[in-house]
Design a protein that fits this description.
With about 300 residues, the protein is of the alpha/beta class. The chain has helices at about 15-30, 45-50, 55-60, 65-75, 135-140, 155-165, 175-180, 215-220, 225-240, 285-300, and strands at about 5-10, 40-45, 80-85, 95-100, 110-115, 125-130, 145-150, 170-175, 190, 205-210, 250-255, 260-270, 275-280. The protein has 3 domains: about 5-105 and about 205-225, Periplasmic binding protein-like II (D-Maltodextrin-Binding Protein, domain 2, 3-Layer(aba) Sandwich); about 110-190, 3-Layer(aba) Sandwich (D-Maltodextrin-Binding Protein, domain 2); about 235-300, Porphobilinogen deaminase, C-terminal domain (Double Stranded RNA Binding Domain).
Length: about 300
Amino acid sequence: MTALLKIGTRGSPLALAQARETARRLAAAHPALAGEGAIEIVVIKTTGDRIQDRALNQIGGKGLFTKEIEEALIEGGIDLAVHSMKDVPTWLPPGLEIACLFPREDPRDAFFAAAGAGLDDLPPGAVVGTASLRRQAQILARRPDLRVVTFRGNVDTRLRKLAEGQVDATLLAVAGLRRLGQADRISSVLPAEVMLPAVAQGAIGIEIRSDDDRMRAYLAPLHCAATERRVAAERSLLATLDGSCRTPIAALAELDGAGRLVLDALVAKPDGSVVHRTRRQGGPGEAESLGRDAGNELKARMGPGFLDP
């Protein structure tokens, strides 16, 4: 049969797992989409996937994982795009929007090392591999004696390089490992107090054309309002700071037992020499204002030239 909708995605194992999860959720919610061939997954290679030998901040930032997919969406080659929300730029192209967020997975970072369960267990001078300025800054703030090197690739590639001794330790998102069915490989999880996650880490977002009411209707039953509030607070902070992969920014918004939204955020120099932290609390309807307020405080504390070499 001719596909009723086409899902655009990157071709990495994690991206494909997330696309398949999207297809399963859609098929479960809409019997018309459950038939064989009703949903087609279209793999689109992005610039970020093609360039693997440099850190993202050196080649243009996180938009390199979404640009080609969004172009296909705008042109009508696909009907919706599945993204890890941590890879989605602060501002979307005109005419596109995130119409659905699935329930958020564990947003924290998993720690992997030849020996030891955390950063504090590494010997002086140990080498930690990461492509994230956010992780780099927090690692060096806690352990300035460590050496951080650029380290990219999918889960298997990074863990193979670790096993080969190319680095002494690395970090991966818990959410990605869980979605890949590889949670059993996690040796330890770093608490947010030690390693604050990336903005929107662990959240899957579905992007559509703003005028596509058919896709909006398909996605409506799948949307998680709690995840929307948490992600809105974190992305509002990011927008206020004009953040990108060139800026070490971290944030985590959570709903406490009383239903209040608690936002923790930080901005740091890439070498970890200065870290500014803040916290905001408020009602779930205040998500964007909490993020803006926290962002404005951090921006004022950073001052001009904070990120200059």
